[in-house]
Amino acid sequence: MTGLQYRTAALAGIVTQFFWGFMEIMVFHAFYEADPSAYPMTLQATSSYVWLQQALLAFFGAWMFEGEIFELIKNGNLAYELCRPVHVYDMWFARSVAFRLSKAFLRCVPILVVAALLPEGYGLGLPASPTAFLRFLLSLVLGLLVMVSLNMMVYVTSLFTISGDGLRILFCSIVEVLSGQIIPLPFFPEHVQRILEWNPFASTGNVPFRIYSGNLSERL
């Protein structure tokens, strides 16, 4: 309920994500026009990947930490949390899930609706099949839980540092590359893909978005 109150911030985020999504798609179009057959994903699949990534950025954004938790750790008020009759890890985990869900709820629908109305090759295509869509939804939930679990590792590790800022920056930099948030994993060299697809970061966005377009099932 707290997260749903920030509607102006959500509107600003929607505008930013539309701009970023269009910019990414224009860059991919430039490459595909040179040689469409040279890439492991079709242009439509790539466009769908980009729009799903923008619409569900709150689900898988590596930088979406709760500043309040870091502040509790830094100033020592974590001691008050430990006095509560609840398990702190479970409470933080539930808060982190709710934090991401509330932000995604406010932003994803407008982006998905507008992206679905754009011309083929520029917008969000239909899922590869009804089965692919169901698998997409399941992988979306599992990917969210993996992302929150990774966040929890950062929170817990911050208990043993003076400041969690460096750890947070390092984590975000690694996850954005290894999870396909900057470049979809199929665009990496084949031998690099084999390594990246086995790491836990690959399930936070890469797997659900490729299941949606059918790219992952084709490779399997």
- Beta content comes to under 5%
Number of helices: 11
Could you describe the largest sheet, including whether it forms a barrel? none
Distance between the termini: 41 Å
Can you tell me the overall shape?
Answer: globular
Low-confidence stretches: none
**Class from helix and strand fractions:** mainly alpha
Give the overall average pLDDT.
85
Helix content: 55-70%
Tell me the count of domains. 1
Q: Taking Cα atoms only, what radius of gyration do you get, to the nearest Å?
A: 19 Å
Give the helices and strands as they follow along the chain: HHHHHHHHHHH
Q: How many runs of DSSP E, i.e. beta strands? A: 0
Structural descriptors:
globular, 220 residues, mainly alpha
Explain how this protein is built.
This protein is mainly alpha-helical and 220 residues long. The chain has one domain. The protein contains eleven helices and no strands. Helix 2 (43-55) crosses helix 10 and helix 7 (130-158) packs antiparallel against helix 10 (206-213). The radius of gyration is 19 Å and the shape is globular. The model has no long low-confidence stretch (mean pLDDT 85).
